[in-house]
């Protein structure tokens, strides 16, 4: 039996706690019951809070804890799971300095430490993710990158694993995290049975299809902001770097340097994202032929744009419309 410690704190997302508990507690159990076999539980779980008191979740539910995370009498956990922060992230970080310190100390404990969604902020705050690969909810990735520049953040990924640290992406990615951890500790067959019993699509690898364009405007460079406004209006036209330099009043070299510093992207990559987002919107909301939508953003080579679209969303345009079209 492997021991899993789930960390509770006020403002956590309840489903990211109760859901992951269900997955671990029913690994080796539900599938056996379905087939009339004797259950073989593989994990024991414990919900731990700072003082052993209740965890008051963001949805108003109060969850009773099994103990406190600093208690010396607790058996060493094989897995420590930090759930989603549902309350304002800055407030939760400020209110849980002792938890941050405790997490930092667990780096040498031998436990695998995992986070779901915005729970990665607590791992990063503890310094556990410095120089490592991580993911978090795509909608908070800019905030994450700004706060933790030493972390290699990949918001397009659903799961990242770097040594004894694992991160899952947005919202309900605890499903995927749970199945991954079950496979790692209890084997592939137990994980497959669990995914089938819970009707989980265990083949997902990316959260990119769910993300909106991450508008790179969290900066104070007025020249770049003005150029972004211009690109928003003219993205469907053929645009060369020389034209962008003329619009910005900068040399091409200075433009590349400042645009990259302000947004994290080159002007060309930003332009591609604008076009992808325009196509994404029309695939979701209209029934226009796909080639017409792609032509409208300035691409005549449909296959070339389809490759670009897949790169940023994880899906071909037709597959994207099938999944998200209204």
* Low-pLDDT stretches: none
Bin the helical content. Answer: 40-55%
| Secondary structural class | alpha/beta
Order of helices and strands: EHHEEEEEHHEHEHEEEHHHHHHHHH
Number of helices, where a helix is a run of at least 4 consecutive DSSP H or I residues: 15
CATH class of the largest domain: Alpha Beta
User: What is the radius of gyration computed over CA atoms, rounded to a whole number of angstroms?
Assistant: 23 Å
CATH architecture of the largest domain: 3-Layer(aba) Sandwich
- Average pLDDT works out at 89
Q: In which order are the strands of the major sheet placed?
A: 5-2-1-6-7-11-10
Number of strands: 11
Main sheet: strands, sense, barrel: 7 strands, mixed
Q: Describe the global form.
A: globular
CATH topology tier name of the largest domain: Rossmann fold
**CATH superfamily of the largest domain, please?**
Class I glutamine amidotransferase (GATase) domain
Domain HTH araC/xylS-type: 225-323
Keywords: DNA-binding, Transcription, Transcription regulation
Protein name: Helix-turn-helix domain-containing protein
Organism: Marinobacter qingdaonensis
């Amino acid at each position: 039996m492997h021991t899993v410690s789930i960390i509770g704190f006020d403002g956590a997302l309840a489903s990211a706690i109760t859901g992951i508990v269900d997955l671990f507690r029913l690994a080796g159990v539900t599938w056996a019951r379905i087939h009339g076999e004797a259950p073989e539980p593989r994990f024991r779980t414990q919900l731990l809070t700072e003082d052993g008191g209740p965890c008051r979740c963001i949805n108003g539910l109060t969850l009773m804890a099994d103990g406190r995370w600093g208690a010396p009498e607790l058996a060493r956990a094989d897995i420590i799971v930090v759930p989603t922060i549902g309350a304002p992230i800055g407030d939760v970080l400020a209110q849980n300095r002792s938890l941050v310190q405790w997490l930092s100390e667990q780096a040498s404990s031998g436990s695998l430490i995992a986070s779901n969604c915005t729970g990665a902020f607590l791992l990063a705050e503890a310094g556990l993710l410095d120089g490592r690969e991580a993911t978090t909810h795509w909608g908070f990735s800019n905030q994450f990158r700004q706060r933790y520049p030493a972390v290699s953040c990949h918001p397009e990924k659903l799961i990242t694993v770097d040594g004894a640290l694992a991160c899952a992406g947005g919202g309900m990615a605890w499903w995927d995290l749970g199945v991954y951890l079950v496979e790692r500790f209890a084997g592939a067959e137990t994980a497959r049975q669990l995914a089938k019993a819970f009707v989980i699509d265990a083949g997902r690898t990316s959260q990119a299809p769910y993300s909106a364009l991450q508008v790179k405007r969290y900066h104070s460079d007025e020249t770049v902001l003005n150029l972004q406004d211009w690109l928003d209006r003219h993205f469907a036209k053929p645009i060369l770097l020389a034209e962008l330099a003329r619009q910005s009043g900068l040399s091409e070299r200075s433009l590349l340097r400042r645009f990259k510093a302000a947004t994290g992207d080159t002007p060309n990559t930003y332009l591609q994202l604008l076009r992808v987002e325009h196509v994404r919107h029309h695939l979701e909301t209209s029934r226009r032929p796909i080639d017409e939508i792609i032509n409208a953003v300035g691409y005549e080579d449909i296959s070339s744009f389809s490759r670009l679209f897949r790169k940023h969303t994880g899906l071909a345009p037709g597959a994207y419309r099938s999944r998200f079209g209204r």
